[in-house]
């Protein structure tokens, strides 16, 4: 990856790219994504940190930036007026399934421990142990020209180290809330495997419903041509 041709991602860019990576792995039948499906993916309340409420204009601006960086491609399907979008991370990084799963979760959930990464990657790639997660992070770091993630300094009162992606640049100081002399670090609780599966199914239903609505609209436009 070339630093001169690969710009740092904004927070919105990271969310959009992370969503494309996630859906390519978890809902391949509904991928590439339409703008509406991508908007739903960005704004979903499960498997996201922080939860956001982007509008279409915000996502479109990010798509434009990512296309200029050649990280996202527009896909025009013959006979359809609905554009779709896919990521181009494979060409830039050449990550395997495990590497893409780790990058995806870091883009969508921010800094996380090895245990959180292992749990949250389960839908895309299964790691047997946290040691395997750590080994994969280290191996990929050695193989790429530009670091993709970094190990954060240990937070006060915390035993486990956290990792954060570097596609948006070096991480800022950990967000803390001072309560007297004690620093409190806000860390999201990991989902159970059952909850993760339920939430993924809910997201899939939302995506399929969006696709169905767009197909209905396209068919109605097609019918109007013969009226």
Write up what this structure looks like.
The relative contact order is 0.15. The protein is mainly alpha-helical. It has one domain: Winged helix-like DNA-binding domain superfamily/Winged helix DNA-binding domain (Arc Repressor Mutant, subunit A, Orthogonal Bundle). The strands form 3 sheets. The chain has a 3-stranded antiparallel β-sheet. Strands 4-6-5 form a 3-stranded antiparallel β-sheet. A two-stranded antiparallel ribbon has the order 7-8. The chain is built from 8 helices and 8 strands.
Present the secondary structure layout.
Elements: H1 11-26, E1 33-34, H2 35-43, H3 56-68, E2 72-75, E3 84-87, H4 89-93, H5 97-109, E4 112-113, H6 114-120, H7 130-143, E5 149-151, E6 162-165, E7 176-179, E8 182-185, H8 193-224
Helix pairs in contact: 1-2, 1-3, 1-5, 2-8, 6-7
Return the CATH topology. Arc Repressor Mutant, subunit A
The number of helical segments is 8
Q: Let me know the CATH homologous superfamily.
A: Winged helix-like DNA-binding domain superfamily/Winged helix DNA-binding domain
> Which geometry do the CA atoms define?
elongated
Beginning-to-end CA distance, first to last residue = 52 Å
* Total beta strand runs: 8
Q: Mean pLDDT, as a whole number? A: 82
The CATH level-2 architecture is identified as Orthogonal Bundle
- The portion of residues forming beta strands comes to 5-15%
Reported for the largest beta sheet, the result is: 3 strands, antiparallel
Give the helix/strand class.
Answer: mainly alpha
What is Rg? 19 Å
CATH structural class: Mainly Alpha
- Lateral strand order in the biggest sheet: 1-3-2
| Whole-number tally of structural domains | 1
| Helix content estimate | 40-55%
Pfam families: DUF480
InterPro entries: DUF480, WH-like_DNA-bd_sf, WH_DNA-bd_sf
Region (Disordered): 174-193
Family: Belongs to the UPF0502 family.
